Request: fold
Amino acid sequence: MRTVGKQAERAAGATVCTVRGLVKTYPAARGRRGRPGPDPVRATDGIDLDIRRGEIFGLLGPNGAGKTTLVRQLTGLLRPDAGSVDLLGHDLVRHPERAARLVGYLGQESTALDELTVSLAAETTGRLRGLDLRTARAERDAVLDELGLAPLADRPLKKLSGGQRRLACFAAALVGDRPLLVLDEPTTGMDPVARRAVWAAVDRRRAERGTTVLLVTHNVIEAETVLDRVAVLEHGRIIACDTPSGLKELVGDEVRVDLVWRTEPPLDVPEVAALRDAALETGRRWSLRLGPAEARAAVAAVTGGPAFAALDDFTLATPSLEDVYLALGGGRAQGLVKA
Amino acid sequence: MSAVSAEAVSGTVRGRGGERPGAGAEDGAAAPLAPGARLLPALAAVYRAQLSRARVARIPLLFVATFQSVGIMVMMRGVVDGGDEARSVVAGSSVLVVAFVALNLLAQYFGQLRAGGGLDHYATLPVPPAAVVLGAAGAYASFTAPGTLVTAVVGSVLFKLPMAHLWVLAAVIPVSGAALAGLGAALGLLAPRQELATLGGQLGMSAALLLGVLPAAHMPAPIAFARDLLPSTYGVEALARSFDARPDWLLVVADLGVCAAVGVVSLAVATWAYRRAAVR
Reply:
């Protein structure tokens, strides 16, 4: 698996964004009445990143891990204390104002657009991205159609549901083509239809224009399905960075097998009796962590032959990014860590 | 023969160039930047968007502003009976509408935008800071026009003042609008907290109310000095002078000039404050 990952990496496009030694320290809050305040917070603490052309690169981490600070530094909103950011050959630490001409940004807040209609929000954003009126209107119509927002075009964002409002902000972020899209939790509150529209729109831009996407997310399930590579952040540092499958391998290649028996486990079957030692029993349920080959053998044993009659249900699951995240970042190593 | 070999040579060169890992348009040379928005189109876009949101969200507030001013004039009708005082009451109440919307509401808007992270939206677009500030200020100022006009006309009827020179409002509204909106925007963007921006806007409006509507002749020296410092005063004076049978146009122009100068300075400060607030 890992070699395949490496090959894919080599085949991928050139580096779009290079970050080296990025540091940002927020000054300590003043202590009250002579008491010393808390220590200064290092929001990003020596971050190195390479984002390649055309990939969806994810930033995963708990609240306060430094994801937003990092994104603000990459979009020219926040000046780093030290380090370098090179985006498509432009030094963003020296020229933060160039970020606006290279990056399409979807932030978490929609305050600036809330009172506009969906159509005007998209059009105005396009105009402010330097498009002339005709182009801005054409792109607005195309994007609203693409995302299925045309029926809501004349409604103010304020009057929409959270997911619809998020989709409208995403539409505004797409008007005016940019080589890099920075999306901060774009699908929060969206229903599956809207989510699908978002990822379809992203994929279309990657395929047609080689657009690169930097995605900030909390949602590990979504991260597994859409990300090409992911960096796990904790306390302002990157503690792991690889493809989702590579990361999972980092933690362990064990497979979780859950067996639920109708009544009593058929211990007279030798294969089942052998499994009992490895199983964590909770009532009628056995939970096992096995290597892929053992798991296959175990499933074959219980689904064929006499044991199947006693089996109520079974599930087979590979480790999720959630397990990786818990093991790496959560500190509470309850994931599938190999001892 | 020679043509073939030349092709072969160039082919190898091309081949070698292609083999270099990562060689491409992006390598070495920087990628082209998308064009930035120019000042005037961006200003027009912001103005249009702000005016549309004002239409939806601010119409009730415009009614409040107008009723407040008309109410003040009705109240003062019992105290003031014509002459200079009536002029300053009508002029002060009319400009108060501008102060309510341009100073108070704009300070609140920018304070809220800054606190809620809404400035990020503009800061991540290639738009000149002046376009955002001037577009918003312009939209708020022009939004005051109907209320100011209604107040001036109602006041003129109420106090039997001549309406012949009310066209002066066409100059008074934009210049006092610029001055007050500039102050409001600067307040909203400079205040360290949203609540302070709101408070500053409210206080500014109260000052415009008290110092603009009450006749200046009876004020104690320090208050009269404060009145001279307030930019809306010059808008009030210009409008009050226009109620004369033969207005002194030179003084009207001088008053409006002060307003315009304050407008330029305060809008420049607001633009600077925007730049400072947007990139930290």
The interface with chain A takes residues 22, 24, 26-31, 33-38, 41-42, 44-46, 48-49, 52-53, 56-57, 112-113, 116-127, 131, 278-280 of chain B (CB under 8 Å). DSSP finds twelve helices and no strands in chain B.
